[in-house]
Amino acid sequence: MGGIGSGRRFQHRGPNLEEVPQLDVRTLKRNGLFDQSTSNGSIKWTNSGLPEAALEYAYADSTLCITYAVKARHTASNVVSEHIFIDRAACNYGGTRTWFLCPNCNARKAILYCASKRFLCRQCYGLNYTCQNEVYPDRMIRKARKLRSKLGAPMDLSQPISERPHGMYRTTFERLIKQDQDNIKSVVGAYSQRLMSNPKQTR
Ligand SMILES: [Zn+2]
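^ Those are the sequences you sent over. The predicted structure of the assembly is below.
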């Protein structure tokens, strides 16, 4: 049985949004997941060429707990559990709108993506609809986050990487840590360049 990550294409280069398993809170709501105070069952993917992959869910206390298999290249699949808080916000025109709170940045999001092990928002993964429109600092951030997702490390670049992934050689890990530090320097450098080239915007 395939898990997330066992798909053909997105192991070999940076993922595009279209190729990444995703959860859309609107679809789940339409399917009645949040109608009762508790519910459970399984969800099948509707995209991403992962026909065998599915995840189990349990919903209670405004929290969606999902469990699914993740398979990285050359490793056995791991079972991952994630808790996603479901937020209901009042709309201007009455009624409420349902949102996921991204488990990493806590922002309200309609869609969460699984580009690595976890279901996070597009910004946390640095995912883009197209690569052409990226400006230099964003490209640097995307590169840094791509490396971090490979390491299963925090997507918040201000957080250090502490844990060596299971089965990774120490020398490889140290090389990637060095690469991460270089990436962060590039991000900081790119931002200061941008500020210098737009002096009116700085205060
Ligand atoms: Zn996020």
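Residues 6-13, 197-203 have pLDDT under 50 and may be disordered. Residues 102, 104-105, 107, 120-121, 123-124 surround zinc ion (CB under 6 Å).

Shout if you want it in another format.
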